[in-house]
């Protein structure tokens, strides 16, 4: 109860009167008021601009403050909750116990420190929110024809879906944003242009649309219908041919393959015949052939 005492004879380095091995909580509260009363004036360099009220601080942290051990004691001492304890005697002085209506009765349950099991239903657990995945960075771009086609298809789809789910009256009063807002629709077009949306999970992560699990497959179908297929990164580009380019007027005429190119034969610069050059002895105008023609005795000496 409020009059319960805690063990110990020293609180925050200050000694208090000890009665039967117990510390009086009223002395603890009085000493704390004296300590906080001296903390006035301009705030220092490392002091906060606004100090927490000492009574409120003690009420919140009474479980960790030695020497008190009761939350109801803080209410009675710091917030004058016990000021009306004698009002019932002044209300009806003819009765020794005072007025029954004004008499403040002590509750059977004191506080959460003395009766913790009675306050379990009031405890609140705050769950830590999980961080959502970040969106992909979207560079600036210029809308093309297929982007406008997808945008018009999404506008028609969300209008028809709003009328289907909520009725024509809701569509007329609130508009098609009940299904998909304008900002979400623009996100869908932008991320679809950069090929970032393939599944309903991609749609939810990139756009933050809350109805992705319900209508995500329908939006994915519209994206696949109106957006051009992404070019494959494994497309092979033919190498440029090493053959001789033919200057022909026809544009569609293909170049000859290297295997069909005929090897160019040598042409003699002296006799203009094909198959040898001017240094070859097979040439009629080679030096060895012309020198033999000018000597008359060459054949005679050879025969003799």
Automatic annotation (TrEMBL):
State the InterPro entries in the record: Znf-CCHC_6
Q: Which domain of life is it from?
A: Eukaryota
Q: Ranges for the Zinc knuckle domain?
A: 267-291
Its recorded name reads Zinc knuckle domain-containing protein
Taxonomy of the source species: Eukaryota, Fungi, Dikarya, Basidiomycota, Agaricomycotina
